[in-house]
Amino acid sequence: QRAPLRLVWQDSYNSGNETIDAQHRALFDLANAALGQAVEGYAGSGGKLAGTVKTLYGTLEGHFADEEAVLAAFGFPEAELEAHRREHGSLLVLAGRLAEHIACQPDTTVSALLDFVNEVVFRHLLNEDSRFFALTRARGAIPSRGGASGT
């Protein structure tokens, strides 16, 4: 069953760095999987959602580290990078709370997941991250932590 809400990647969401863009697309895919599983679970046939949220957490953690490394290598202003790091930490706390919520209050999982997707995808990936897209679009690919390189 498909979720009533499906995130669709648009080319305008591309940062210009292949690694960041591939990770953002993977996060869209995981969010879509979680939304579909939450709807299935709400209908009484769930079970996969906790694993997907765990994968989402790990993917976010790796993405945030790669993104921070790319921004540092590109010379993103240190004060802004530090603020971005703190935001990443807050979003990981939020992801951990989502996992706890799913375990403790499954009847409100869809609402909690929508809140999480709004925070991570819409507010952070599409709005907050777009602040550095001019830099990454101009610079493209560089080597960085863990093979995080672009085009």
Write the topology of this structure.
Layout: H1 18-42, H2 49-73, H3 78-104, H4 109-128, H5 133-139
Helix pairs in contact: 1-2, 1-4, 2-3, 3-4
Explained architecture:
It is built from 5 helices and no strands. It has 151 residues and is mainly α. The longest helix is centred in the middle third of the chain and has 27 residues. The C terminus is likely disordered.
The major β-sheet equals:
none
Nearest-angstrom radius of gyration? 16 Å
Helix content: 55-70%
Give start-end ranges of low-pLDDT stretches.
143-151
Give the class from helix and strand content and strand pairing. mainly alpha
Give the tally of β-strands. Answer: 0
In percent terms, what proportion of residues is strand? Answer: under 5%
Cα(first) to Cα(last) distance is: 35 Å
H and E order: HHHHH
Overall pLDDT, averaged?
A: 85
Number of helices: 5
Which term fits the overall shape? globular
| Assembly form of the protein | single chain
What's this entry about, in short?
The chain contains five helices and no strands. The chain is mostly helical and 151 residues long. The chain is globular, with a radius of gyration of 16 Å.
